[in-house]
Amino acid sequence: MATDVTVPTLGESITEATVGQWLKAVGDTVALDEPIVSLETDKVSVEVPSPIAGTLAEQLVAVGATVAVGAIIARVGEGAASAPAAASDSPAATSASPATPAAPAETAMPRDDGHSDTGQPGAASDALRLSPAVRRAVLEHHVDPSAIKGSGKDGRLTRDDVLAAAQGKAPASPAQPAAQATAPAAPVARPEPAPAQAGERREERVLMSRLRKTIASRLKEAQNSAAILTTFNDVDMTAVIDARARYKELFEKKHGIRLGFMGFFVKAVALAAKDVPSVNASLEGDEIVYHDYLDVSVAVSAPKGLVVPVVRNADAMSFAEIEKAIAAFGKKAKDGALTADDMKGGTFTISNGGVFGSLLSTPIINPPQSAVLGMHRIEERAVVKDGTVVARPMMYLALSYDHRLIDGREAVTFLVRVKEAIEDPTRLLIDL
């Protein structure tokens, strides 16, 4: 008797997903709650677990197909998979391939989904259960996940583990070809193209992922519906840099995390929003919705594009709580483990293009929010202080806002308040 595998509830307002990758093949043994397929939604990748322990009997949809919430996408049968014919003691089975030796069970090769071809659930299988981001890194860098020690929860691999292994990967030893001859090589997502000939011009067409389509749609929607305007200012980062240098060791020792720049900017935004509440508001029809809380969407880079998890009630959080929340979201983004709830809501966005070297930009607001603050790289520039030209670490700030709701005076005032708080962090402590 087979049990249906259905598309789970994917989050508020998400009604369908795209089949990204089958993590198990038909006939594979699966454990209870072991992921068998990865689905891509508008926001995140979701792994669908097996409802029972047994064997994957059917795959009812193909990779790339769109499936609705509640749809049946696979069936799992009870019990283990039947033994291959080659393992039979019958003469027919033993004469079918006399020249091909059977691979020892204990040396089964890992597949690209990180599970052993033995199909046996256990500690090793659990440790090699890979997230979509880790699987992609394994395929891109051609490393054996079974040979890498994971640093994640329960010994699971992270993307950083794979990248570190790829950087230190040694040439294949003479013993490897013999081992590989006894088992099929790990499949790859797409064959490597042949080397281009001199003067040859090539093109490659790749379908947009569901996440990239959603990003494109939302950004265009923002430009079409909002009256976006950007105002700029620069900020002297001397005081913040000095504070970090003075307290970073004590901060890390006490809280177990590094003191970064984002905590200062989140605190500065919370302070400025008290003076200019429209920057933290949104438009709903003919009404302006003011929020007495600050839920900050922090833009972070993920393997499939930019995502914006939300630090909720950031105005009431300490520096340590803010830094811990952002660090946790960053790790989840790299591992492809962000959920739809992680990115739901948000009343204001902070985007740090400076980590990629950006000098200046005009960020686009994230509807239904009305403003976004863009941070950029810090570099020494000549500025005049008390009549003297000095070199100071300066950063350009950009505030893009919906001019339908926020006037120019309010936008400039908000940005000046942020600048004042960053250049004199004491203001953050005494609420000035």
Topology record:
Layout: E1 2-6, E2 16-22, E3 29-30, E4 35-40, E5 45-49, E6 54-59, E7 66-68, E8 72-78, H1 91-96, H2 123-127, H3 132-141, H4 159-167, H5 175-180, H6 210-225, E9 228-236, H7 238-255, H8 262-275, E10 282-284, E11 287-289, E12 296-302, E13 305-307, E14 310-311, H9 319-334, E15 348-352, E16 371-375, E17 379-385, E18 388-402, H10 408-423, H11 426-430
Helix pairs in contact: 3-4, 8-9, 8-10
What features would you highlight for this structure?
432 residues, alpha+beta, OB fold (Dihydrolipoamide Acetyltransferase, E2P), Chloramphenicol Acetyltransferase, 2 domains, eight-stranded mixed beta sheet, four-stranded antiparallel beta sheet, 11 helices
Structure description:
The protein has 432 residues and is α+β, with helices and mostly antiparallel strands. The protein has 2 domains: 2-80 and 109-173, OB fold (Dihydrolipoamide Acetyltransferase, E2P) (Beta Barrel); 210-430, Chloramphenicol acetyltransferase-like domain (Chloramphenicol Acetyltransferase). It is built from 11 helices and 18 strands. The chain has helices spanning 91-96, 123-127, 132-141, 159-167, 175-180, 210-225, 238-255, 262-275, 319-334, 408-423, 426-430; strands at 2-6, 16-22, 29-30, 35-40, 45-49, 54-59, 66-68, 72-78, 228-236, 282-284, 287-289, 296-302, 305-307, 310-311, 348-352, 371-375, 379-385, 388-402. The strands form 4 sheets. Strands 9, 12, 13, 14, 15, 16, 17 and 18 form an 8-stranded mixed sheet that branches. Helix 3 packs parallel to helix 4 (159-167). The longest helix is centred in the middle third of the chain and has 18 residues, at 238-255. The chain is globular, with a radius of gyration of 27 Å.
